[in-house]
Design a protein that fits this description.
With 400 residues, the protein is an alpha/beta fold. The protein is built from 16 helices and eight strands. α4 runs antiparallel to α5 and α8 crosses α9. The chain is globular, with a radius of gyration of 20 Å.
Length: 400
């Protein structure tokens, strides 16, 4: 689905940003206005224009807060947080040394934290014990009664931020009486930026301490825990539930079986063989050509170098190799909902592959282009996506 840009990566990211309007994370006129001055594929202009609208709303939110306009402040700061995230998205050339990238990410976190203090329902910032450090999170409570409720534990994937998880799932869950514990793990945004921790394939070692922490909160019903993993997080969540048996259900948003095969399908077979065989003397230059020609390839490989701790694009691709469900899918025992998107070309066939490999109670849920929900992770169709998924969870948890 083309949205505002001919460049496929710009089009999808603009749709992603606009789609968060369902939970006050964007306003369509602001998205249109920002996009008007961004030429296709111009990453510098992308950052400049989204930064401008984010900073304007940051200022609006601060003024509204000072004047006692609570709702106006919250809404402005939520939009600012999302636009700061969007501005930073393509700044992946050297994130560890990019001071502007660090500033944008910090502003996105800070504006969301300010907005969260103004929610009508309680929001508890978390530092979750993990090995010899902690992981950042938020516990979004559906009310302040202390009542035990079904609780969604949600993490993102390859590039989402902790703050964005509110727009992706928590907003819809809270309206339906679910608590949500959202967190970031190794390799993900602030954990990678501030602690230098990269992704790990044995994701159960990340999720299990999060479950342990969730159960210290009396509002969390231990019999109605749901694990929710978004995008690449769908693979990570499936891996975790194979070894963590305290979940009543799992939602794979969307289903991903093999994260190494996905990028290999997008390059010529001979190049994939060079990467796999470690022939970086020829694979490196060939990938450099692809990166020069494609915004998506350039972003995927540069971001991969950062989140996996790789030094070169071929190394970043090879770092994807351990991320599959070969030994995990058959071990999953909790009821599992696998989401698929009709127009998800990058992950085409992955959800069906996951669904076929599962031996537990399972359902494959397809979202179509005709209903406006056919893009990867149902971007741009949050209300339809939440309606179908949370209706399924309501029924599943009631039966359980």
């Amino acid at each position: 689905m083309k949205f505002l840009f001919d460049d496929a990566a710009f089009s999808f990211q603009a749709l992603r940003t606009a789609g968060h309007a369902a939970y006050a994370g964007a306003d369509l006129g602001e998205v249109l206005a920002a996009s008007l001055n961004i030429p296709d594929g111009d990453e510098e202009a992308w950052c400049r224009e989204w930064t401008a609208v984010a900073e304007r709303l940051h200022h609006v939110g601060a003024e509204a807060l000072a004047a006692g306009h609570r709702v106006s402040a919250r809404e402005s700061l939520l939009r600012a947080s999302n636009y700061y995230r969007t501005a930073d998205f393509f700044r992946v050339e050297d994130r560890d040394s990019d001071l502007e990238s660090a500033r944008l990410a910090r502003c996105s976190r800070q504006t969301f934290a300010q907005a969260a203090q103004l929610f009508d329902t309680p929001v508890v910032p978390l530092r979750i014990p993990y090995e010899d450090t902690t992981l950042p999170g938020y516990l979004f409570l559906a009310d302040d009664t202390g009542r035990r409720r079904p609780t969604v534990i949600h993490h993102g994937g390859y590039d989402s931020t902790l703050e964005e998880l509110y727009f992706m799932a928590a907003g819809g869950a809270l309206r339906r009486g679910y608590h949500v514990l959202a967190f970031e793990g190794p390799g993900q945004q602030s954990v990678r930026r501030e602690q230098g921790l990269v992704f790990r394939p044995d994701w159960e070692h990340v999720v299990t301490p999060v479950v342990d922490h969730a159960l210290t909160h009396p509002e969390v019903d231990p019999e109605r825990l749901v694990l929710f993993g978004t995008s690449f997080g769908g693979l990570l969540a499936a891996r975790a539930t194979a070894f963590e048996d305290r979940f009543a259900a799992c939602v794979l948003h969307n289903g991903v079986y093999d994260f190494y095969e996905v990028p290999l399908r997008g390059i010529p077979p001979y190049l994939g063989e060079w990467v796999t065989d470690g022939r970086d003397d020829v694979a490196g230059p060939a990938l450099a050509v692809s990166m020069a020609q494609s915004t998506q390839a350039r972003w995927f490989l540069r971001h991969g170098m950062w989140v996996f701790g790789a030094k070169t694009p071929p190394e970043a691709l090879r770092a994807c190799a351990p991320y599959n469900l070969d030994t995990a899918a058959a071990r999953i025992t909790c009821p599992t909902l696998v989401l698929d998107a009709e127009n998800d070309l990058a992950f085409h066939g992955e959800a069906q592959r996951v669904h076929q490999a599962l031996r537990c109670a399972k359902e494959l849920m397809l979202f179509t282009v005709a209903e406006g929900a056919g893009e990867h992770c149902q971007e741009g169709a949050a209300l339809r996506f939440h309606q179908r998924v949370f209706d399924w969870l309501d029924e599943r948890l009631a039966r359980a």
